Structures are given as C-alpha cells and as structure tokens.
C-alpha cells in the first residue's frame, strides 16, 4: 500500500512524458539533470492537490467583497468552533472574480482498522475537500453501520470489486470519516443511494466542502480555467460559441463576463452531460446560455445560407469561439494513477484538429479563438498551435490577459516569440513541498493543475 505516491503510470506513458523534457533539444541541451528533475517533480506534484482551492465568484450578481464575507460565514458554520478562526479566503491579486483558499496538508492523520475503499475519481475529489458520496464506495467493513468511524482509501488501479468487504490491492489513504449509511443501504439491491456515504472529518488535505454552499454566488473552478474566460474576453451583446462545453464551468463564466447580455451557445456531444450545463446556468442565474447536444466536428452547416437557431451553424457565425478540447487530462490534480496506455493518450490529437477546423470556419473575421487543454503533452498543446498556424494562415497568435502561467514549452518548432504568447500552467516549476508556505501570488498561480491556453485572432 502506498502512503504518499507519485502518480502511477504505464511505463510506456512514463517514457512518453519523459521525452517531452529529455528529448527536448532546448531543455535537455542546457541542463540534462535539471530536465530530469523537472520531469520527476511533475510526476510527484500530479498526485497531490494544488495548494489553493479556487472559487469563481459571481461578480455579475454581487461585489467580490460581499461574496467573500458571505462565504466566510458559511464556511465557519461548517467548521468546528476550534478551527472556525482558521478560514482564510483571499482575493486573487490580478483576477477580479477569484477567491483562493489555502489547502492544508498533507496532515498527520492516524489510519484506523475499519477501511472503506472508494474509486480513484472519488478519492481525488476527497483530496480536494469533498465528502464521499455513496456511489463512489466500492468496499466497506461487513458490519459497517451509520456512525462508525472509518479510514478511507482510494483504489488506484480500478481493481476493487463493488461491495467487497476488504481490498488488498494498490490503494492510498485519503483520510478518516464517519459513515452516514449502513453497509446494507449502500450495497442494497438496485442503484446506490444518492447522498453522502462517509462524511470526512479528518481528511489528509483540509479544504472546505462547497457542496450546496452559496450555489448562485460561488463556483468551484480551477484557476487556469477561470483564466481562460478572461483570455477569451467576451463582451456584452456578442455571440459566443463554446464547442465542448460540459459541465459548463467556462460557459457560465463567459455568460457572466458578458453580464448575461448576448448569446452563449454551448455544444456538448454527450447527451447526459447537457443537464449539468443547464443546471449550472440556472444556479448561477444566467439566461443567455443555449445548450445543445451536438458533435462539434459537424457544427458547420453545409448550407451556409440557411439560418437556424441551433446547430449546425453557417460559417462565420460567432464573434468568439472557445475550443476547450477533449484531451488526455494529464494535468488534472490529484491523479494518483492513470491506467491508460499510449494509444489512448495519443488518440486526442486528430479529434482536436477536426474540432479546430470547425472552430476556424465558425469564427467571424476579426474574431477571437481560444484553444485550451488540461493536459501537459506537447502533442496536444504546442504541436497543435504549430499545426494550426501552418494550416490556417488567417490565424495570428495573440497576447493573453491575464498571463500568469509560464510560456509554451520548446520542442514543437515554435519560435521563442510565439512561445511567449502561449500560457502553460506547469505545476512542476513551482512545486516543492518545502515551499508550502510560499506567499501569494507565486504559489497560487504556479501550483495549479497542468493547463495550456493559446489565443488566436482570425484576420
Ligand atoms: N469546457 C468544459 C468546462 O469548462 O466545464 C469542460 C470541457 S471537457 C475538457 C471536454 C468536453 O468535450 C467533454 O464534456 C466531452 O464530452 C466533450 N466532447 C468531446 N468530443 C466532443 C465533440 N466532438 N463535440 C462536442 N463535445 C465534445
């Protein structure tokens, strides 16, 4: 059993990621050892949560300071009276709709003999402040009753069978909690019950739970994702396309930045994710969002003269387009294990290019296209930019505002000037356990999920 692991990857994937740093003429030629160290740091920091929880505040509904105070009151209610004074909520020094909450951890938490095992996705959510919801539970003690105190472990390799009594596979401890349901209820006949199965009382990483907290005023969102909305720069009255929209975090941010005036078209291929976009829009009181289930690679109308409300759309229909592309997700944190092989990791580049073709066609001349991913590979980031600049001579890279991440990585044939216009959030550049107390803004801006943003103008 791992106590504090680096991310566990298939060897072929490790080698592939390593090659980004070590087969890279610019990085490796300068300092081979430094490149190796940077890669090792990346593996370690990916398995840990970022050191700040970021929430986007609905500044279209209330001023930031008012939201900060309300949030503080709500979170104090959540905490025990002894720790209530510890709630710290900081505005971001540059981004006017962001509040940051320091994450405390890893804390010394004693493991108990009663074990609940949860799926890897659930385990990652617990490390970011969530409680354990019943559907995430895979194994529990045979006679577990509501009220029992248990240790929670995350199954790293998806090997634990549902309703097991114990599990000896590769698992990692994420904290202690109190069961809110009997085992018989969790694994009874039919679907798992909804709701909290284990309420975390001693999580390894202390971070507030935002479940049901001020639903119209705060939205849990990674810092780089909030940066995307600002970089896109939507203005009231515009028509914007969000091509890959679910669950709608960026769609809602775009609508909020437009003061809910204009139109945000949100497309999503997976039907059962559409409701999430609509629920989020409703919770945040945004009416300018229109969500459709549609494959965005097909979103350009073959009959350009035909105007329709929904997709497909005639070419040049939108003032701005966001392509927050489906990707290998290797920047998400914490990911303690990835069971994918190289084939899956490399499968996204062609799809991203198809989506890119549609994005460029749907954008008006003079319009802005933002491409983003939550992964760290060159193939899905800088290589895509190099390909796009060659394939679409009408696209010009643009400076980004705010630019709080690092520049683009070398190795994809882009010039230093071009790389300087890209924004890559590279947590390994700032991540160091000994720096846990580093002050804002450096640590909050650097120790984020791995992310990439490119902004283009269609000339
Ligand atoms: N932008 C979202 C947000 O901020 O909440 C996250 C988007 S996620 C990175 C990519 C989404 O694209 C997934 O929900 C996936 O189902 C969807 N997707 C994948 N292929 C698609 C396609 N061809 N057309 C539309 N959506 C697609």
Question: What is the number of E strands?
Answer: 18
Round the Cα radius of gyration to an integer and report it.
22 Å
CATH class of the largest domain: Alpha Beta
Continuous helix count: 14
What is the average of the pLDDT values? 92
- At the fold tier of CATH, the topology name of the largest domain is Rossmann fold
Low-confidence stretches: 434-441
- How much helical structure, as a percent, in the residues? 25-40%
Q: In CATH terms, what is the architecture of the largest domain?
A: 3-Layer(aba) Sandwich
> In this structure, how is the largest beta sheet organized?
8 strands, mixed
**CATH superfamily grouping of the largest domain:** Vaccinia Virus protein VP39
Shape: globular
Ligand species: S-adenosylmethionine
Report how far the terminal alpha carbons are from each other.
Answer: 56 Å
Sheet/helix structural class: alpha/beta
Question: What is the count of structural domains?
Answer: 3
Structure notes:
By secondary structure, this protein is of the alpha/beta class. The chain has 3 domains: 52-102, no CATH class; 115-203, Archaeosine Trna-guanine Transglycosylase, Chain: A, domain 4, CATH 2.30.130; 223-458, Rossmann fold, CATH 3.40.50.150. 28% of the residues lie in helices and 21% in strands. The strands form 3 sheets. Strands 11, 12, 13, 14, 15, 16, 17 and 18 form an 8-stranded mixed β-sheet that branches. It has a 6-stranded mixed β-sheet with strand order 5-9-8-7-4-6, with helices on one face. Strand 2 (90-91) and strand 3 (98-102) form a beta hairpin. Helix 1 (11-22) crosses helix 3 (32-46) and helix 7 (223-232) packs across helix 8. The longest helix has 15 residues, at 32-46. The protein is globular, with a radius of gyration of 22 Å. It starts with 10 loop residues before the first helix and ends with a strand. The model is unreliable at 434-441 (pLDDT under 50). The protein binds S-adenosylmethionine (SAM). S-adenosylmethionine (SAM) binds next to helix 8 and strand 12. S-adenosylmethionine is lined by residues 225, 244-250, 267-270, 273, 295-297, 324, 326.
């Amino acid at each position: 059993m791992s106590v504090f692991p680096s991310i566990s990857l298939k060897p072929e994937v490790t080698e592939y990621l390593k090659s980004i740093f070590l087969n890279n003429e610019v990085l490796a030629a300068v300092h081979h050892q430094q490149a190796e160290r940077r890669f090792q740091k990346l593996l370690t920091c990916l398995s840990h949560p970022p050191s700040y929880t970021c929430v986007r505040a609905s500044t279209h509904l209330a001023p930031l300071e008012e939201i900060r105070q309300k949030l503080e009151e709500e979170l104090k209610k959540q905490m025990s009276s002894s720790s209530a004074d510890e709630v710290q909520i900081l505005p971001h020094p540059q981004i006017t709709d962001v509040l940051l909450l320091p994450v405390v951890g890893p804390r010394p938490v004693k493991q108990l003999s009663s074990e609940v095992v949860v799926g890897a996705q659930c385990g990652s959510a617990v490390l970011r402040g969530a409680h354990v919801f019943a559907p995430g539970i895979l194994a529990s003690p045979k006679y577990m009753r509501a009220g029992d105190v248990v240790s929670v472990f995350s199954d790293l390799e998806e090997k634990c069978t549902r309703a097991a009594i114990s599990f000896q596979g590769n698992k990692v401890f994420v904290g202690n909690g109190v069961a809110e349901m009997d085992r018989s209820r969790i694994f009874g006949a039919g679907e798992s019950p909804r709701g909290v199965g284990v309420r975390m009382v001693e999580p390894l990483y202390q971070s507030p739970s935002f479940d049901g907290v001020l639903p119209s005023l705060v939205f849990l969102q990674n810092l780089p994702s909030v940066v995307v909305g600002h970089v896109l720069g939507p203005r009231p009255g515009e028509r914007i396309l969000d091509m890959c929209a679910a669950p709608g975090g960026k769609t809602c941010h775009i609508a909020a930045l437009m003061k809910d005036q204009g139109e945000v078209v949100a497309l999503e291929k997976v039907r059962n994710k559409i409701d999430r976009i609509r629920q989020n829009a409703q919770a945040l009181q945004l009416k300018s969002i229109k969500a459709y289930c549609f494959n965005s690679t097909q979103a350009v109308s073959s009959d350009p003269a035909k105007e329709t409300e929904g997709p497909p759309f005639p070419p040049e229909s939108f003032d701005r387009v966001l392509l927050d592309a489906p990707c290998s997700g290797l920047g998400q944190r914490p990911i303690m294990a990835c069971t994918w092989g190289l084939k899956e990791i490399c499968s996204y580049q062609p799809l991203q290019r198809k989506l890119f073709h549609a994005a460029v066609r749907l954008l008006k001349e003079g319009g802005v296209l933002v491409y983003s991913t939550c992964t760290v590979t060159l193939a899905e980031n800088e290589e895509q930019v190099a390909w796009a600049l060659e394939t679409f001579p009408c696209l010009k890279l643009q400076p980004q505002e705010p630019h709080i991440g690092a520049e683009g990585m070398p190795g994809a044939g882009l010039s230093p000037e071009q790389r300087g216009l890209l924004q890559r959030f590279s947590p390994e550049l700032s991540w160091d356990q000994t720096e846990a107390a580093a002050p804002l803004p450096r640590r909050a801006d650097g120790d984020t999920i791995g992310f990439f943003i490119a902004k283009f103008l269609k000339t």
